[in-house]
# Entry
Amino acid sequence: MGLGKGVADFKAKGGRVVIDSRLVAVEGVTPEEEWRPVVDWEDCYEVSNQGRVRSLDRWVANRSSTGRSLMKGRVLAGSIDKIGRPYVRLSRQQVAHRKTVSRLVLEAFVGPCPEGMEGCHNDGNPANNWIGNLRWDTRTNNIYDAVRHGTHQQASKTHCKQGHEYTPENTSYRRGGRGRICKECVRIRTRDHWRKNHGKNLYYRSVP
# Structure
């Protein structure tokens, strides 16, 4: 099971990640684990404040003489998506549903997701699904977090599209810190615009 780019970036910055029951957890999380029912799956699954998910003992239909058998509960084997977020597959009546662990934790311990919001990780590590590291917030603030933590694709670039390096002298920031601006590109665009619209003024009129 690969950890994904998000976890790899976190590890590269010194974060320590361990695998526990094939779910990713972060060392240092409080050992006091609390379990609550998964919202809308209360009869089948529970999720903990540390980001683990387990199934409950339940009867399932089969072709035996009794027509059913007892399936023992267990901690689910999680997977990691391409951006480093752990997820699990919850099944009912032989139909599987993919759920991100962070969302399950927030719904169980905080409440329903407000309209227009999504799950955010305070430390920028998508593998750390301890409840103290999660919050509901806007998509915009989630992107700001990625920029601040250096995990956003654009924030990790060292040069602009034209090949100019993002040095302190060559970099300015948009209002609110919403992105970087290459000063050299601005100078070139300004110069070209001026030449296009005012170039005729460079020529002197001949004196009769």
